[in-house]
Amino acid sequence: MAIKKVPRLPYRRGSQSSEDDFFDIPDEPCLAIAKRQLRHIRTWVVFALLVLFLVWLRRERPQPQALPHINYDLVDWSRYAYSQYATSSAYLCNAVMVFEALQRLGSRAQRVLFFPEDWDVSVESERDRDSQLLAMARDKYNVMLIPITLETIKPGAGSGESWDKSISKLLAFGESEYDRIVHLDSDANVLQNMDELFFLPPTKVAMPRAYWGLPDTKQLSSLLIVIEPSYKEYNALMEAALPAMYGQKAVNTSSTQRYDMELLNERYADSATVLPHRQYGLVSGEFRAEDHRNFLGNNYEVWDPDKVLAEAKLVHFSDWPLPKPWVLWPQNLLAEMLPKCKHNPGTPQESGCRDREVWKSIYHDFRRRRKDICKLLSYPAPAWPPTEHSESSGSKEPV
């Protein structure tokens, strides 16, 4: 019996067929063709999705947002407050500017202002600016006004400025109706909301480091103090201040720090919570410095003035011998004190002047807000170099 040959291609006729019908392949059902093509497409789609998934897994993921450990909407904000004190017209305006910034930035805490008891809120004339500012603080910025008897160290024991001899800052320690108080120096630009300070772990005092004195000294700076009010602490601090108040203790009149800062360091230097100075202790003079290792805390980080200012919650004005920002700059002194450009300084080709631009913007912002909020212009520039009389009546400005 003969064996029938089966063609290798089942749908193609044998080679013995005529040439005309050799390529005459029978029609395959369209559905079968579609299914076969779909299988190929599906395979490629699955492969492409797998590749995309692997690329997605290897992507650079953004930093996770901080968890809202505290629901601010449920906080009893009457238990927390910012405090300031004013002993002169200039510092009263500064205090109002700080309260304006806190309100603009969305702070929910209470606000307290200590002021001399011989001031009042009765506006007797258009020129009665102190009374107008007190009324503005009370009515527009919801500030609690507390008249006080000024507590100072003995006259002649410090510089001629009242803010240098006053220890009224210590009064915040006695405001025990609050669970926590954040006391701010008013000669500063508040840049960001700082309400998170009210929820630090329990501590009698939290302060930033006076980083400009590192590594020789590791003092705390009193430009910002987080306080747990306590009559016990208040009485202890006032008792420690009594010798200086009655002239029984010599005060270093050439010191560049305030007496209240010295007092707080004596009591809390080894027990206070240290706040990061990048956020809570930046001083304007840092933008004039050439060596930023004390501020950065290392030798490898690159100084970036824009980044530094963006991270800061506030910047405190300290540029001795330049005056505070409500006093105009003596132009001949300013030429010496301006931050230097990085390349070709002092020439028409100078560049790399970002430190100077940022530094000047801090001052311009303060003066603009002083004019807009307090309706006050800066004082005329003092004579420079100072006369013999002015040298004897003042001292180096503390930080």
TrEMBL record:
<feature type="compositionally biased region" description="Basic residues">
    <location>
        <begin position="1"/>
        <end position="11"/>
    </location>
</feature>
<keyword id="KW-0808">Transferase</keyword>
<dbReference type="InterPro" id="IPR029044">
    <property type="entry name" value="Nucleotide-diphossugar_trans"/>
</dbReference>
<feature type="region of interest" description="Disordered">
    <location>
        <begin position="1"/>
        <end position="20"/>
    </location>
</feature>
<keyword id="KW-1133">Transmembrane helix</keyword>
<dbReference type="GO" id="GO:0016740">
    <property type="term" value="F:transferase activity"/>
</dbReference>
<dbReference type="InterPro" id="IPR050587">
    <property type="entry name" value="GNT1/Glycosyltrans_8"/>
</dbReference>
<keyword id="KW-0472">Membrane</keyword>
<protein>
    <submittedName>
        <fullName>Glucose N-acetyltransferase 1</fullName>
    </submittedName>
</protein>
<keyword id="KW-0812">Transmembrane</keyword>
<feature type="transmembrane region" description="Helical">
    <location>
        <begin position="41"/>
        <end position="57"/>
    </location>
</feature>
